[in-house]
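Can't paste images in this forum, so I'm doing it all in text. The chain is below; anyone willing to post the predicted structure tokens underneath?
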Amino acid sequence: MLDAKLVARIDGLDAARYRGDAFRHLPPAYDPLSGRGARIHGGRWNPPDSFSVLYLGLDRRTVVDEFERLARRQRRDPADFLPRAFYRYDLTLQNILDLRDAEALEAIGLSAAELTSDQLEACQRVGRAAHHAGREGILAPSAAGDGTVLALFLDGMQPGSTVAPTRMETWESAPK
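Text version of the structure:
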């Protein structure tokens, strides 16, 4: 359910811009600009059967940490998910909700513990509200380590924002 008060609090926060690289892994045959799997199954920032999201890391280590966390959460060996295609994205974004500092988290009522919890409801509530508020995505600390993740809402892209993927490599064995 959409929380109108949370949407208003998000609207009250300054929009962040992001210009730079981000990275993602996915099965080799998948479209690097599809967030269909996240739309169907959900993720940290979107509930199942909601909206498409590209889950990206701002550096390779974050993507590898998130990959390993995915395997652990499903009680599987990372090799079970291989091979994986590893992509770099060149991004220009204008309207991001930046949750990398304590003040922003406090403003929307999200705790640092909720950012890393396996219980996703609090983050999904924020993601739904940010999506409804017209944000292009959310920058947040990674649940898997010290890095930063970007949950990108492709259907919220604004004029002048761009997402350009380039395939970097294929992981045939567990990445390092």
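The chain has a mean pLDDT of 94. The chain has one domain: 4-171.
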